[in-house]
């Protein structure tokens, strides 16, 4: 109980720090992304069949001024792409409507951190629809369609985090020590890499359930985030080879960047990266039988 109280105080102090810094740097009030993106509704989405879709999700469509201006420029250079936005409520509803009968939904409900829930959501979303998913704190210097030139393939990029493991021979040698980028994904619908990643999360969920982890970041990165996806990519390449994937260098050939002002989003949604001594998953035990 004492640990949770301390954590709550620290989280609130971090929110206050970002809020004060935001005011000092002229980052408030926040700017609205709509109508440049559409809030996701199934009927509206179905009316855009045949277009290239890019999904984003976060607490709100409002960002700090500088963050929003850069994100809007990113959207504007992709005028041939339809952007769709999910807030927490629409994300939860979508998971319930589309994956309620799949074991991943039980895992999703038990996840304690919003960012980890979002990891699961983006895998499921792209498995069903295909297209692109971009994090709210990532933008691109170039058009997405120029980057994703083979939409029938899964686009694999890397980031410079050392991740020691057994490597599939099909990964270019210069990237074999790095994990796969997971904050931004490009995939056709129902790609096997996404299926493998989803099934790995279900498979290993009992090992994470109700466990107190010294490092929240390390646990989440292995359970739902970059290391999980990297292991799924390795498994896929070992079994199927590289015919249905496309490789794309570090941070999508350095076209992907964190927009200025993005750090102030933590005033709205604190990061889990410094979390210690906490659970990341708390499932109903009966869920293991389903």
Q: What's the arrangement of secondary structure elements?
A:
Layout: H1 2-24, E1 31-32, E2 38-39, H2 42-46, E3 52-57, E4 62-63, H3 65-76, E5 81-86, H4 88-99, H5 103-110, H6 114-129, E6 131-133, E7 139-140, H7 144-147, E8 154-162, E9 178-180, E10 185-187, H8 192-208, E11 212-213, H9 216-223, H10 226-240, E12 245-250, H11 251-254, E13 256-257, E14 278-279
Parallel strand pairs: 2-5, 3-5, 3-6, 8-12
Antiparallel strand pairs: 1-4, 6-10, 7-13, 8-9, 11-14
Helix pairs in contact: 6-8, 8-10
Structure description:
- It is built from 11 helices and 14 strands.
- It is of the alpha/beta class.
- It has one domain: Spore Coat Polysaccharide Biosynthesis Protein SpsA, Chain A.
- It has a 5-stranded mixed sheet with strand order 2-5-3-6-10.
- Helix 6 (114-129) runs antiparallel to helix 8 (192-208) and helix 8 crosses helix 10.
- The protein is globular and about 45 Å long.
- The model has no long low-confidence stretch (mean pLDDT 89).
């Amino acid at each position: 109980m004492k640990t949770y109280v301390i954590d709550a105080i620290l989280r609130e102090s971090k929110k206050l720090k970002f809020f004060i810094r935001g005011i000092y740097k002229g980052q408030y009030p926040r700017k609205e992304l709509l109508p440049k993106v559409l809030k996701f509704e199934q009927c509206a989405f179905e009316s855009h069949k045949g277009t290239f879709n890019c999904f984003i999700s976060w607490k709100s469509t409002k960002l700090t001024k500088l963050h929003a201006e850069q994100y809007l420029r990113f959207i504007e250079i992709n005028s041939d792409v339809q952007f769709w936005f999910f807030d927490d409520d629409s994300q939860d509803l979508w998971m319930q409507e589309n994956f309620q009968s799949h074991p991943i939904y039980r895992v999703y409900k038990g996840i304690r951190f919003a960012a980890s829930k979002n990891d699961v959501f983006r895998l499921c979303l792209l498995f069903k629809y295909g297209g692109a998913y971009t994090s709210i704190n990532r933008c691109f210097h170039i058009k997405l369609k120029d980057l994703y030139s083979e939409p029938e393939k899964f686009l694999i990029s890397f980031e410079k985090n050392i991740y020691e493991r057994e490597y599939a021979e099909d990964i270019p040698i210069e990237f074999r020590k790095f994990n796969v980028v997971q904050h931004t994904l490009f995939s056709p619908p129902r790609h096997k890499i996404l299926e493998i990643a989803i099934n790995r999360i279900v498979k290993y969920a009992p090992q994470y359930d109700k466990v107190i982890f010294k490092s929240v970041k390390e646990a989440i990165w292995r359970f739902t985030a970059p290391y999980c996806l990297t292991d799924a990519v390795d498994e896929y390449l070992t079994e199927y080879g590289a015919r249905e994937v496309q490789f794309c260098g570090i941070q999508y050939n350095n076209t992907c960047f964190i927009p200025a002002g993005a750090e102030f989003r933590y005033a709205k949604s604190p990061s889990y990266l410094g979390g210690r001594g906490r659970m990341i998953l708390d499932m109903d035990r009966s869920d293991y039988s389903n």
